[in-house]
Amino acid sequence: MGEHIDQAALDEAVTFTSELIRIDTTNRGGGEGSERAAAEYVAERLSGAGIEPQMLEKAPGRTNVVARIPGSDPGADALLVHGHLDVVPAEPADWSVHPFSGEICDGVVWGRGAIDMKNADAMVLAVARAWARAGVRPRRDIVLAFTADEEDSAEYGSDYLTDHHPGLFEGCTEGISESGAFTFHAGDGLRLYPVAAGERGTAWLELTARGKAGHGSKVSRANAVSRLAAAVARIGEHEWPQRLTPTVRAALKELAVVHGLPEPDTDAPDFDADKLLAQLGPAAALVEPTVRNSSNPTMLSAGYKVNVIPGSATAFVDGRMLPGGEEEFHRTLDELTGPDVDWEFHHREVPLEAPVDAPAYAVLREALEHFDPGAHVVPFCMSGGTDAKQFSRLGIAGYGFTPLKLPEGFDYQALFHGVDERVPVDALHFGTRVLDRALLAL
């Protein structure tokens, strides 16, 4: 298996990554963005391989591409492979190279989207075209979805597709996408490959404090700014309790074992995740953000003049909820905001959990270990979210699986939305081979 991934496929993975980066698909939020040119690029390369793409838009320029590759077993469930076409903004003055140059230099492809996630889009295209050249058919139908607007609310992308075109995903039971299967160097030569099998839920909050407007020189016992500031301080300082999901329990057990520690009893009433994390060195970073809910104040707005007490003040909080943690989150926010501050969801998406004891996860593990025999594949829960949240509405279990073999010192996670985003050519070659093997075996 995999002999049909020829040099042409490896070259295409690199070329497509570079050329997609050159198409500026910056998503500035609030509906400002355009993925159309990248969608047309993808559709042309699918059509060139005899794969029929559909281009779908909720608004002009906010273009999605969906295509289905028929499988050889008509009775099998379908598999969704999805990636987004938009990228977050990049300030050229901060970069070593222009962020939309797609420059290939010293075996590295540079630019916004090299990691998040035009690299994955390119590898999927390269694999699909290699199958077409070699006459290879997967066992199951594979639905390819290249989406708009993932970097904001997904209103024009996966949210639109699942609400208005659910039939395109008929039969899909699992989906694979971004933010997993990369090399994480944990020290002493230990190579981990975290495969995502869960996501915390998005809980972006808007807080509103109300008080009595008046002159800044007068004593005010009902100051909206003071009330809001007190609530924001309580939220920012709150220490959320430990809450362990099945994915996080599995991650802690496997990480303990690969670090030579006794397998912990994560179900014990006195189990202390923080104590174990302190023994895991760099690998703790994979799990630490997901052993509890979180709430980070991010924006404040109040007043218009220094000597005027405003009648209201607002703040925004980036909250994240673990599977099963929604009730705790609601209750805690009610307590922290108090009687003088109201809160509501500015944007909300569900937390996710995918089984790590399922055959699909075993296939993903095997494909990585096949091409890197020294690998230790571990499950993890993402601290943030992806389009898998929207696709979960259709009953699709999502895994984060964009395989990349990365050298030591290459901080994959820091390059997400970071300056000088880049990906090694060798990593794209590795990922293309692993994706081919995994997709045909799933």
Structure description:
There is one protein chain. Helix content is 30%, strand content 24%. The protein is built from twelve helices and 19 strands. It has helices spanning 7-22, 36-47, 118-134, 158-164, 224-237, 246-258, 273-277, 326-337, 359-371, 388-391, 412-415, 425-441, and strands spanning 54-57, 63-69, 78-84, 104-105, 108-110, 142-147, 172-177, 184-185, 191-199, 201-210, 214-215, 294-302, 308-309, 312-321, 341-349, 352-353, 376-382, 397-400, 422-424. The strands form five sheets. A six-stranded mixed β-sheet has the order 1-2-6-3-7-18, sandwiched between helices. Strands 8, 9, 16 and 17 form a four-stranded mixed β-sheet that branches. The protein has a four-stranded antiparallel β-sheet with strand order 12-14-10-15. The mean pLDDT is 96.
Question: Helicity, in percent?
Answer: 25-40%
Largest sheet at a glance?
6 strands, mixed
What structural class should be given to the helix and strand makeup?
Answer: alpha+beta
Strand arrangement, major sheet: 1-2-6-3-7-18
List the helices and strands and how they pair.
Elements: H1 7-22, H2 36-47, E1 54-57, E2 63-69, E3 78-84, E4 104-105, E5 108-110, H3 118-134, E6 142-147, H4 158-164, E7 172-177, E8 184-185, E9 191-199, E10 201-210, E11 214-215, H5 224-237, H6 246-258, H7 273-277, E12 294-302, E13 308-309, E14 312-321, H8 326-337, E15 341-349, E16 352-353, H9 359-371, E17 376-382, H10 388-391, E18 397-400, H11 412-415, E19 422-424, H12 425-441
Parallel strand pairs: 3-6, 3-7, 7-18, 9-17
Antiparallel strand pairs: 1-2, 2-6, 4-5, 5-19, 8-9, 9-16, 10-14, 10-15, 11-13, 12-14
Helix pairs in contact: 1-3, 1-12, 3-12, 9-12
